[in-house]
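hiii so my PI (J.) wants the whole complex modelled not just the main chain, which honestly fair. so below is everything: two entries, each one labled with what it is. i double checked the lines twice but i was tired so who knows lol
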Amino acid sequence: MMDVYISLLHFPVYDKNRRIVTTAVTNMDIHDIARAARTYDLAGYFLVTPIREQQAMVQELIDHWTKGAGGEYNPVRRKAFELLRVVPDFEAVRAEVQRRGGAIPLTVGTSAGRGPRALSFEALRRRMESDDGSVILTLGTGWGLEKKFFESLDEVLEPIDGRSEYNHLSVRSAATVMLDRLRGRRSQ
Amino acid sequence: MMDVYISLLHFPVYDKNRRIVTTAVTNMDIHDIARAARTYDLAGYFLVTPIREQQAMVQELIDHWTKGAGGEYNPVRRKAFELLRVVPDFEAVRAEVQRRGGAIPLTVGTSAGRGPRALSFEALRRRMESDDGSVILTLGTGWGLEKKFFESLDEVLEPIDGRSEYNHLSVRSAATVMLDRLRGRRSQ
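here's the output for the full assembly
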């Protein structure tokens, strides 16, 4: 069984006009994905932003909910925030996961669009259950992960197929659905 | 095939100390669930609050994104907001769905806790595909739907089982996962 990590990138991603930008960290993405990461028993959640002020802001949140009075007041939030780390770039995610697991992690990109190579949720789920090592699921904010970075990842996960041509879930909702498809338990 | 509706109740729900309260409408719940409703091809999304000022605020948002300059500027948002209605109580949801569909709708409660009666996601999915008429999925904000109201609903859906004892998804993430389990298309 693989250790599963999720990472949310604020750079390099596209804006509406397909320019490469750094997006702002948003509070709801932090909270909702941290709660989902704990619910689906992940090994960690990495928030990636190159902006120092935003790194410091996220670190303050983490400290507040894991060390301070916040963690005693709200243990539910503490358990979610314990999984969260903030790092400047994806190389730092890769290095930290490798340091913890000992082997080179599998990196998996996600996108709302369908490309030529795509692993199905079922195929990745089976692989995560049968293989050893670690996997890093990688999500972009804004209008998605920059092309060159995206192509540098080992695998690409198929997009979430709802029941319409409309594919505009928020990144926090999309992250939770992905984890549910890859990790959720189902009764019949 | 049933027409599927989702409703998010801000009353009657519990607070942290199990008092019955009215919670505040939050912007992210409006946006994220509207986008999920459109992605999973629902027939409508009802936001339920008895507070007139909050009804007016939500109606302004709806008008802005569906009628005003907002809808032209952002058609993605328009398509999501077209599904949204704001109503004062659950009776208004029931009445409107019955008016549209002609028959008495099936009402389904959801909860993060496991109770004595619970329909599995698979069972409800099959029923939604084989039956006619309409179904209203009902979610509570705060610490969940008040007991008497909850018991007045026709059916109860099993809780989302992640992969841990931790079951604290945000209501917007939980709504999206439910819709994915009930309506999402899956490849093998």
